[in-house]
Predict the structure.
Amino acid sequence: MEKKKILVLGGGFGGVFAAKALEKLGRGTLEVQLVNNNNYFVFQPLLPEVASSSINAADAVVPLRQLLTNVQVRQAQVMGIDFAKKAVTVMQGARMTPVELRYDELVFALGTGVDLARIPGMADHSLTMKDLTDAHMLRTHVIGCLETADVTTETLVKDQLLTFVVVGAGFSGVETAAETRELIRRALPYYRNIKPEEIRMYLIEYAPRILPTFPGDLAAYATKQLEKNGIHVLTGIGTKSATSTGVELTNGRIINSSTVVATIGNGPHPLVQQLGLDLHWGRIKTDRYMRVPGHDHVWALGDAALIPLVDNPQEDPADYATQTAQFAVREGYQLAQNIVAKFKGQELKYFAYTSKGSLASLGMSKAVADVYGVKLSGLLAWLLWRGFYLSFLPGFAAKFRVGVNWILNSIMPPNIVQLRMPPPATRYIHFWKGDKVFEPGMLIDGFYTVINGSFKLTIDNPETGEHFEKVFGPGEHFGERVLIKSELRTGLVEALEDGLLLFIAQKDFTRFARAFPFLDQYFKEYIEKTFGGPDKAFAPGNVAAQQPELEKTP
Amino acid sequence: MEKKKILVLGGGFGGVFAAKALEKLGRGTLEVQLVNNNNYFVFQPLLPEVASSSINAADAVVPLRQLLTNVQVRQAQVMGIDFAKKAVTVMQGARMTPVELRYDELVFALGTGVDLARIPGMADHSLTMKDLTDAHMLRTHVIGCLETADVTTETLVKDQLLTFVVVGAGFSGVETAAETRELIRRALPYYRNIKPEEIRMYLIEYAPRILPTFPGDLAAYATKQLEKNGIHVLTGIGTKSATSTGVELTNGRIINSSTVVATIGNGPHPLVQQLGLDLHWGRIKTDRYMRVPGHDHVWALGDAALIPLVDNPQEDPADYATQTAQFAVREGYQLAQNIVAKFKGQELKYFAYTSKGSLASLGMSKAVADVYGVKLSGLLAWLLWRGFYLSFLPGFAAKFRVGVNWILNSIMPPNIVQLRMPPPATRYIHFWKGDKVFEPGMLIDGFYTVINGSFKLTIDNPETGEHFEKVFGPGEHFGERVLIKSELRTGLVEALEDGLLLFIAQKDFTRFARAFPFLDQYFKEYIEKTFGGPDKAFAPGNVAAQQPELEKTP
């Protein structure tokens, strides 16, 4: 008999535990393949620990191939599903080559996406905490803020660099705030020019209290503990907008900050919206067996799925499986059993599970726990937290590495190495009225196009008394002199109203403009017309002569 | 008495050991500041171990602030030096703000740069092994090759993915090849569709033998050992050109490979060339005290400096200090003593040092060593290698972490987690005559402009029988239909002669073209004129409908 092909999309808790159980239960009869964007499984609960350097980035994840030794693991991106043909198109490799994968049964476990579109500027100016790269970037960003704050002489810049905002106070928000605060506290002795009282951290929650899934008294304890650690907890307040310099709250207050972490805004996975499936709350509706109605060979589980726990579910989240790792793991087992039962012609079983409880770390060796109805807080809860996650972490190697690193980290100086990633070549930057885009003396870093709003450029040459002013609206641009020479900014650009710019980094912009004669010509004419030619330097001093050479076209 | 300001530029072996000694010898009288691009010191000899996952990226480096607790460490980029004013301009922070730093004595320790310009395509298509990011990228790249090779069905693609080329067989080249080979060997059991005999690795050296600084018999042993490990050692052969699909050797042979690591091409640091200093072999000439002639308060050491060991040095490298960590460390001590002696009006001392020997790891627990004239090879040399570098690694925390990770790594499954970095938005891609740029069915990934050469686009629609052909020369472009929809390539583009393209990733290109009305208009007209309008799809099938949505302008 030919083996049945089971295709699992997604390598989170739901996908991995389903694939593992399918492989075990169906050995010899099933051919299990799992497709995931990364070649590793992310142990999400440990991401805040990565952000704080408590553990190494590689230790919060487990290579899927080592976790699923008898499953074909494919690192690829899911592009589309043809339900009629029972085929999934994925793109794989550096060149993104399409491959069609056939299935007999399809398991959808792609989790959720992030949707921050409701808060202007938030998507472009906040860090998130969904995957390993996010945790790594947050850590790198925080250490970068300390590095610059230690050597800057500008008070306003220093204030902004030393103010940290975490939006959303569920598990992820609370643990991220607590762990980041701990990293900063431990790192500070190495930054001689930063005083501990200069650090400000805010945890902002729209609901009336933090940790909504916890009993009220544990949440109150957690709030007290976080405040004690120097984290200002603001509840009943939302965020209205964000820019590169801070966030605006719903009560009108503006917090100037270089670091905004958004742990809010769970949205559907981008692919889900295109599949024509029945969605509710952005999740794929399934029956109690985790089958997707209307599609005979499609199953869904984990955060992506809306699995009813009762026969006639109402508009009450309690009627559905919750979006936690605990549930996803149990769903994975049950789904595997149901698929095997289906092939054997046996009866399928309802998914049923009751949460065993919740745990949240608060930093400083404190936590809150609500386990089997028993409420714990403080050091004991924290030890339980560590023990639980260590035991839950799949694979002996991962457990061992995390355990060793926890011990190492507690006795060693904190790891403040900043492994930087190159910033993206293009980015949208939001401004509030009056914000400065750049000032004279800054290094020319790129080219700006106005998407909306209006921006005013002012150039004053104190030596010659020359004065130049120009206002730019949508579709207009500034900073094109980067094409002529790499020098310092001579002008000041300010937002005349709230607005949005598209920034393109110097290197990428000059490469493009030079390779593309049409654009090159356009800018030559524009610079001649607007500034009276490329030699019109407006440049104070002679620092320009010492700037690094512009990249030469090969 | 006011403290004298000593400014050290560069945080490699030379800069760090000079700063450490200056701080110690000059405590109370000197104010030492060190400027470095990264906030960590890179222990270069361990970079190949990072590439092979033997140790974590963070463990091959030490935070400068933890190494130099009484030195002001400034993470910033050196932009220019005004010798007359005794001032250095650096750029710091995310916004690259310029800061002027005054000095009484300046220590130049910025090391060297990489210059691969002599070999067409090499700079754009090879990985290097100079810093931590390089090692991290090599590791990520190698694991990515295994991931794709495991799931591809195309033999040619698989061959290319499983062929690895290391150019240059000095220490860095030999150790990089050996360690990468070891990573692949250990990872392979987890890639079920790759057979060990499908892996090919080449080590290419222009000189008649590898490890030129070692005695001939040790080099011969090393060659035998590397060959035994499955690395083809090609000596007396150079590289002529490189593209994204392989390297061309000086003997005319072409090796198809997705991975080329260049450990050759040491060039001067980019800043050095602009300073008007006396250079020889791209290095700053100093006197025997490490002072830079003609500049009373400037010193140089490490790889950046050419320090004579004799009074009348000839055109013989042996007359100068060699560019190794061993020498740099001794130079740092001596330079610190000389600066302190200068302030005290005491006599300066010549720099004098004789190498204690060399060590090179060959993988598989083998190494070669030539220490105090004693030649060793095999396991004993390898243990000496590990012991020596562990003792040499500055700071107890670093030693402990590396030691623990060496042990962990030897008993645990290899770490095959692929922590990907986003590819750069723009890149130059070289092609040999006949190379394909893309083929029908590939995901549209970006826009191409021809820098030189000529490229032919062919589109055939089997359903309608339509045929379209166009040749593109310098300044012309293709791939602009990415602006209209995100779909699969319908055409084939081939190089009609050797050529160079500038590639711009879809996301960045569409953001720019849409934000910039002038460009938007240009492409609308171009598409109309060239293809007869945006609806002329040339698209086989309906996969396009399932592609992810194009990003919306916020």
Q: What stands out?
A: The radius of gyration of chain A is 27 Å. Chain A is about 30% helix and 30% strand. Chain A touches chain B through 106 residues (CB under 8 Å).
